[in-house]
Amino acid sequence: MSMIPKPGFIILIGCLLLSAGCTQPFGAGNQTTAGQTAVLSPSATYRATIAQPEESAALIHMDTDIYNIGEVVELTVTNDKNYDLTCTNNPPSFSVRYQKGNGQWVTRMGTDNPPPGNESRLRPGESTETYRFVTTGWDPGRYRIISDCGVSREILIRPVPSLTPTPPVCPPATNTSPWIRITPFSDQYANNPFTIAGTTSLPAGDKLQYAIFSLGPDGTATPEKLISSSTDISPGSCGTNTWYVEGEVQVPGIYFIGISDSANTISAVKRFAIMPSAPVPGTGTLLPTPAPPGITTGRSG
After folding, report:
1. Residue 141 lies in a domain
2. Prior bond to 91 cis, omega within 30?
3. Is this structure's pTM higher than 0.85?
4. Distance between the two ends of the chain, CA-based, in angstroms?
5. Total domain count for the chain?
6. Among candidates 299, 187, 169, which has minimal Cα distance to 239?
7. Closest Cα partner for 245 from 255, 264, 258?
8. Which terminus of the chain has a smaller tally of CB atoms within 10 A, N or C?
9. DSSP codes of every residue in 221-235
């Protein structure tokens, strides 16, 4: 009997570290004060647009309309028209509004209705400075950037995608009694290794006892066609764990696999056939059956 160790599986989980900070929450360009270095949160690394309710949104140039909370929003107002844009402040400014659940827009940043200052104009082809603001601490939802040059654009801010896998949603348990099941499998060929697998409600780490055997004319197990061993239960999900065994049978015939818990109170049995050796590809002939009869298993506890 040859024993093959259970193969190991290594799961590599990558962790993404995201560090963010900013010396100023709102301003044009990279502004710093004496003795300080401006450190901005990461900008969006993807490109996506959303439908805009106003045509003027095209005059606010942005890399994307969708941001994760904590990312930096960058924008520039560019006059792509053939006439001047009048701005109520010099230099031009903007505010950001947030749409509440009832559809009402409330000011999130800037002044709701700022008093007019010194007017300025954007001539055709001219642009404002690049404005930046950080969305750290903002609620997810729809926001509207309103420029005092008479244009606006809407963006979406969404929660940061979770790096933790979402646990499966398990259906309610309908069978509370412990059980062992053998997954259906096809007939096998002599001298070819095969795997038999199944599921169980028994705890992961427990051992299952199993036997692969053939019955003689009197209904008892044929001694030269009998092998027994054990296998470990592997973790699964939703209360269903898994198990498997590996084997190889040299003699064609009808066989059974029986598997049970260590106390032999919970069990399952399945019948299967071992066919003569598989044909050699392209020849249609059969491989000769080796003389030594028996069964080998590749999984033991």
Report:
1. yes
2. yes
3. no
4. 14
5. 2
6. 169
7. 258
8. N
9. EEEEEEEEEEEEPEE
Q: Cα dihedral angle (145, 148, 152, 154), rounded to 10 degrees?
A: 10
* Last residue of one domain, picked from the residues 102, 126, 158: 158
Strand boundaries in 233-283, DSSP class E: 234-237, 240-249, 253-261, 267-275
By residue range, what is the domain housing residue 283? 180-297
- Quote the tokens at residue 73: 């929003």
**Residue located via tokens 């710093």:** 32
Answer whether residue 173 is part of any domain. no
181: β partners:
199
The 8-class DSSP code of residue 286 comes to B
pLDDT digits (tens, 9 = 90+) for 79-126: 999 999 999 999 999 999 999 888 899 999 988 776 767 899 999 999
Q: Confirm if 155 and 68 have CB atoms less than 8 A apart.
A: no
Q: Structure tokens of 78?
A: 């560019």
